[in-house]
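Throughout our pipeline, every protein is held as a single compact record rather than as scattered files. Such a record has a labelled line for the sequence and another for the backbone structure tokens. This encoding replaces a full spatial description with a residue-level series of whole-number codes. For reference, a complete record is included directly beneath this paragraph.
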Amino acid sequence: MYASHEDIGYDFGDDSKVGSKPIKPNPNVDGGWAWMIVLSSFLVHILIMGSQMALGILNIEWLEEFNQSRGLTAWVSSLSMGITLIVGPFIGLFISMCGCRKTAIIGGILNALGWILSAYASSVHYLFLTFGVTAGVGSGMVYLPAVVMVGHYFQKRRALAQGLSTTGTGFGAFLMTALLKYLCTEFGWRNTMFIQGAISLNLCVCGALMRPLSPKDIVSEKYVVRSNSEDNQAKALSHSAETIKSNGVLSEEPEKKEEATNEEVLDSVQHIDIGGKSGSGRSMYGLRILKTVSQLTVTVRKGFAIWYSSYFGAASLFTNRVFVAFIIWALFAYSSFVIPFIHLPEIVKQYKLSSQNNLFPLTSIIAIVHIFGKVILGIISDLPCISTWNVFLMANFTLVTCILTLPLMQTYISLAVVCAVIGFSSGYFSLMPVVTEDLVGTKHLANAYGIIICANGISALFGPPFAGWIYDITQKYDFSFYISGLLYMVGIVFLLIQPCIQKKQPREKSTEEAQL
């Protein structure tokens, strides 16, 4: 598995420095408050992802209320789900400036506001703005910090922690579906939006639980030594992360210079404050406001500089070829998971299996097994002799194979077996933050993972309509699975090719140096 120096504690320039800086570990890393972070993230997944998975209940109500086409009405839930992920890079800017806790609390308020304003909807287009955009942006502001904080608090058991927290999506799908169905029956869909908005305020509580680690604790993660098997693979594939460092992304010298400049600004304001103590109370109040504004300006400038350099600077994350391949993979992967949920009911009708599917829906099989897949794959990935990267690839290969073979299954039993495998192998979603962190390091996890979920959001937003367009042309659902599966395979091939290229580069360089 590829990894950055921050993660495995190796300085490849000097092997003698391995583990040479023992630091007393924080009891809250891999234990203590870290499990409260997992609980917070678990609840976030229930309230956000679980609610979005249950939007089919509200979609029926909106169809009856506004008498619009199914395609137009479906864009409300698609916008909410897509924007939650697409805004990832911009949420990374908020995290750089405000931190995960404040970002999540603001997002919780915005999400609740979106639900409440949607209760006054007079048209579907009104819902586009209030529910699709407002609630969607709020969801994104809570979702990304929830994933990033788990990565900050866990080092040895990251895959298990991410797996446990993301199971909230599966539990939430069942809980929120039952809750929304009950509320709509008893109180109507408008009052349901009010009640759900009040429930969504609990996201602010989840955000408050995201207590930030001190910089010292985050830096100490550099010196955590992993197993020998992972270390050997890290040395071989760490050149992707090394590329970023050589180009200056991980360099802290510009930040130090900027911090020195910022401190000078604050010191000058403090001197003015001290010198003006003899002045009137109004002048002192004005100086305090000036000091607060100066501190806020410093924080914003510093956060924006980090965010900008990560995305658009000369030494951005995009100089990492494996990371770019990871983005290409993400563009095709998520739609391949979403499409079965959309088209399976139609396939069941086509094969006249509705009676059996009504007893135990195939989509429910995927959702239930998906929960276990996340936890089990997380446990396997944390084993000392297992590479997270290899588990991630194997799960991807299994899923794409099932996507390609699903249209060939024409009995309920065979479809159920394939759906169960799809649910289990799609548990690799819990490994995505772990793989991203191993590639770019904990420091850049928020910005890097923001790009990854943005790619997933684009896939979720445009994948299902694309599959519907394919059906309109061919009048068959089979081609939707085949085309999405082939595109998914292209993304996996990119993941396989780039690490091989990264392996060859240092060898070629050493040969040239030997000739010189």
User: Anything to note?
Assistant: The longest helix spans residues 478-515.
